[in-house]
Give the backbone structure.
Amino acid sequence: MAGLRILLVEDNVELAALVMSGLRSAGFLADHMGTAADGRHALRLSQYSLLILDLGLPDADGLTLLREIRQANDAVPVLVLTARSGVSDRVEGLRAGADDYLAKPFAFEELLARIEALQRRPRQLADTMLFIANLKLDVPNRQAFVDQLPITLNSREISVLELLLRRKGRVVPKQVFEDQLFGLSGDGSPNAVEVYVYRLRKQLGDHGASVKVHTVRGVGYLISEATG
């Protein structure tokens, strides 16, 4: 399990310091954020193997952030860490998308055991339907829809769209597109990714999709709902 990257979102500075120290001593790569806003920003910028989430954050209820994560099709395992220990609180957290629940106070050994158990648990590899605004992708059938009407995209345009939707609101590095589109064959030209992104943008625009595909120069691309 060592080397896995974990994000801790916890506003209690002393508790966070203890947990971070323990995680790093156990060999994990760990980042700490003290607010829901900072946690949301970290999740958009980086890929984590696990999120440890406190519910009583100063700027928002942790459940709100948890629901946003699941609505964005992010399947990162989430361990809720909180002082709310009632049955109804646990049920609410699990229904919102938490994978496990640990009430404060706790022994670090138990937290570590739960982290290890979550990492052993098989994850659902892919959601079959991906959504943003009025755009939907039926993954098994490789079919995109705008306002419930099918649109024609070729295989690689579908692959680009799937990558964008699976990391909705976060940057997908250009190298990830290259690996997905061309694998080890290396048959893509230097600007092949740009070409497929351009074609996808045009198709989505022509069919009235209320989305925008952004270019983050030198990094990659991300998809978001169109504004204004």
